TrEMBL record:
Domain 3-octaprenyl-4-hydroxybenzoate carboxy-lyase-like C-terminal: 322-445
One Pfam family from the record: UbiD_C
Name of this protein: Menaquinone biosynthesis decarboxylase
Organism: Clostridium paridis
Alphabetical list of PANTHER family matching this protein: 3-OCTAPRENYL-4-HYDROXYBENZOATE CARBOXY-LYASE-RELATED, FERULIC ACID DECARBOXYLASE 1
Similarity comment text for this entry: Belongs to the UbiD family.
Length: 481
């Protein structure tokens, strides 16, 4: 289902007992973080703080902070449903033959929903236009004690490639420097940084618009690891089964979601010196180090008359961003399996905070197959950041951490089965000697064959025979269990 806007999603959460309103005055300086952190660790509800000190806007946080709410935000019962939809949509066998052509009509009709619609008029996000913008009026969070200041934590940063005119959307935190400037946290490997580098060759000012508070499918799409040729708003349209409505920004030519709660417009002067940004309490559970980034100058803020300010906090898992990562895992698994059919399942454990650990099960077909899968994954987009890849056999579920640990602890010979790979790392990785570069580890925990150099016979797993298991299953209740 498509939510019209964030208000519609809030109503849906409340109707399903997934939202708690807090009317007591709270402080955006640390207090909201402490409350939200405790709630997220207890897998609690979304929170709507209706009375935030020194601001007239309510704050919504933890809106996608469980598996159930993450699925609800994308309009499905299970996150795997989206991956299955994508798999069916791009499976060409569904379109072959006369009967299949008729059956495929609903899929082809859905294709029409992916293309955004540019409205000729102003949108709801422009009900109020502030040409003398002041970021201090927004309830922007100071999340952790050692943070360098207040940070916008759930921004959809829209930019436009100066060569192709193609828009890009990414989620990059914004540290507030003063009432109308922020940092622009474009990592070395991010698309926003690449577009910024193109503008540097031209000189001058790079237009930027930042949307806050959209239909959650739009917000999630800004984080999705899409190929460069796929427009994030097209992907959002596919997820929500309804086109995203866009309107032109007031002060530049960038189009933004018409039903956003806030839009912050401005520019980055590519000739301006970079400014120190950070530290920031990050999703790794540690403070990311301060570094130099471009400065975003705010020239206009537009918003709804009754706008809700969206926020998230990151830190030691589990937190809300973990479930956005799990959505990526389940949504893109079918595409991964199309490239590598021997992959059975995959798991990004919450404790791995996106990039630090991936567990993958495979249907092993030849010697060294597990090592081939490791190197293939390190070669795919953001998977290059993965610090540890664990490969297990097809009869082991990557979701069963206990069994995976058992296989790793008992199945490996360190010299033979551990791979050390040199390459790029996430900018937030504090453990490597050098920024952006270091070493990744692969662990082959599959059953070893003689053709892989294991001369001895590999032992069988201990398992009861089927007759006894069936007998006990029939009598289970009789035993008092």
């Amino acid at each position: 289902m498509a939510y019209k806007d964030l208000h519609n999603f809030v109503n849906h959460l409340e109707n399903n007992n997934e939202l708690k309103r807090i009317s007591t005055e709270v402080d955006s300086y640390l207090e909201i973080t402490e409350i939200a952190d405790r709630v997220s660790k207890e897998y609690g509800p979304a929170l709507l703080f209706e009375n935030v000190k020194n601001s007239k806007y309510p704050v919504l946080i933890n809106a996608m902070g469980t598996y159930e709410r993450m699925a609800m935000s994308l309009g499905v019962e299970k996150l795997d449903d989206i991956g299955n939809d994508i798999s069916e949509f791009i499976d060409m066998t569904n379109y072959l033959g006369l009967m299949n052509k008729f059956k495929s009509l609903p899929r082809l009709t859905r294709l029409a929903t992916v293309f955004p619609i540019k409205l000729p008029t102003k949108g709801a996000c422009q009900e109020v236009i502030e040409m003398d913008p002041d970021l201090s009026t927004l309830p922007i969070l100071h999340c952790w004690p050692q943070d360098a200041g207040r940070f916008v934590t759930l921004p959809l940063v829209f930019t436009k490639d100066p060569e192709t005119e193609t828009q890009n959307v990414g989620m990059y935190r914004l540290q507030v420097f003063d009432k109308n400037t922020t940092g622009m946290h474009w990592h070395l490997h991010k698309d926003g940084r690449e577009i910024y580098e193109k503008y540097k060759l031209k000189g001058g000012k790079m237009p930027v618009s930042v949307a806050l508070g959209c239909d959650p499918a739009i917000t999630y799409s800004a984080t999705a690891p899409l190929p460069k040729m796929i427009d994030e708003m097209m992907f959002a349209g596919f997820l929500r089964k309804s086109p995203v409505k866009l309107v032109k920004s007031i002060t530049n030519d960038i189009y933004v979601p018409a039903d956003a709660e806030f839009v912050i417009e401005g520019y980055v002067d590519v000739n301006e010196d970079l400014r120190l940004e950070g530290p920031f309490g990050d999703h790794t559970g540690y403070y990311s180090l301060a570094d130099y980034y471009p400065v975003f100058h705010v020239t206009c803020i537009t918003h709804k008359k009754k706008a809700i300010y969206p926020a998230t906090i990151v830190g030691k898992p589990p937190m809300e961003d973990c479930y956005m990562g799990k959505a990526t895992e389940r949504i893109f698994l079918p595409l991964l399996k199309m490239q590598y059919p021997d992959i059975i399942d995959i798991n990004f454990p919450l404790e791995g905070v996106f990039h630090n650990c991936v567990i993958v099960s495979i249907k092993k077909r030849y010697p060294g197959h597990a090592k081939k899968i490791m190197n293939s994954l390190w070669g795919i987009g953001q998977m290059m950041y993965t610090k540890m890849i664990i490969v297990v056999d097809e009869n082991v579920s990557p979701q069963d951490i206990s069994t995976v640990a058992w296989k790793v602890f008992n199945n490996i010979d360190a010299k033979r089965d551990v791979v050390i790979s040199e390459g790029p790392l996430d900018a937030l990785d504090h453990a490597s000697d050098l920024p952006h570069y270091g070493y990744r580890m692969g662990i082959d925990a599959t059953k070893k064959w003689k053709s892989e150099g294991h001369a001895r016979e590999w032992p069988d797993d201990i398992e009861m025979n089927d007759e006894v298991k069936e007998l006990v299953s029939r009598r289970w209740k009789e035993y008092g269990f």
